[in-house]
């Protein structure tokens, strides 16, 4: 460890020891933190207005894995990569899984795509036409197969289904159609596979969205069975919604299955994690920490970002660093003091317990942890210094860069 970092780390350790923090226990939890990155975060992406291509963007799923391996190499906590089918369609999925393993990675959640084909104009599993629902269901079943081939245990589903005009379709009938299709898929999943159901307030439909909030997703999961769980994407809520409250409620119901971390100021959801709302991120982790200690709880932590103007690998690395820092701060909360303040109705003290942990500078701790894990103290700087991007920009000059579609 560099001398300056060692000094900062030691000073941090002393301050925390004075606060009565067991630093060894905090480090153990931090070392165990894992975050999945999305294959689609490495390809070219943009908005419906424009896509700004970047140099060195991968041309196929294999190259996306190479980029994901860089994120893991520098942070030490991102060993798995989510796939999106058909964006990541390959002839031989075992070959892709083996290639991931050769890079020290594994394939994670399989994300079906039910929003791109012309047939889905009126929806996929909610579509009034049974033939379209059949096609959507078959695609979901194909994704179950792919998950099996790559030894992934997670099917992660976001539906774009909704309507654009009042009167266009029946809410209740659409819900019934969704349940029928998803029940078939759920029934075909192996015993150890979990279905994560992701909700989103709106988009692309303008009038109503079939899975628009935690309630629509939760009740659907409850009907499907205990291996159907809700996935919370941080960018999928109305302004002002208390996401940490939703998190605690889903945890209490035993139905929180996954997270998509990202950030936004307005409606879209693809910014670097914690770039706008670091305090909210911290508060979410405060809710998660205690739940994680329950052996029955398994939450898939994933990043869901598709960067428009910022360099993609660096953006992903920065998101991971922000997640490490938010988690570390949450681990510093004096939970006994919090309980006591709550018991005695001391509102301000309870709030200050949180502020006290949040205001700690955990950067030396996280830097040291990354080094322990074989990563880099300053991963963005180390990645830049490695010359990786310049090298792949040269190697990947020919051919079509991967993107949406
Ligand atoms: C669309 O909003 C979306 O960003 C969802 O969050 C999904 O998780 C992602 O696309 C991939 O399908
Ligand atoms: Mn998402
Ligand atoms: Mn989204």
Automatic annotation (TrEMBL):
One of its GO terms (molecular function) is metal ion binding. GO terms for biological process: L-lyxose metabolic process; rhamnose catabolic process. The keyword Transcription does not apply. SUPFAM superfamilies: Xylose isomerase-like. It comes from the Bacteria. Residues 91-269 form the Xylose isomerase-like TIM barrel domain. Transmembrane segments: none annotated. Keywords: Isomerase, Manganese, Metal-binding. NCBIfam families: RhaI_grampos. This is L-rhamnose isomerase. The gene is rhaA.
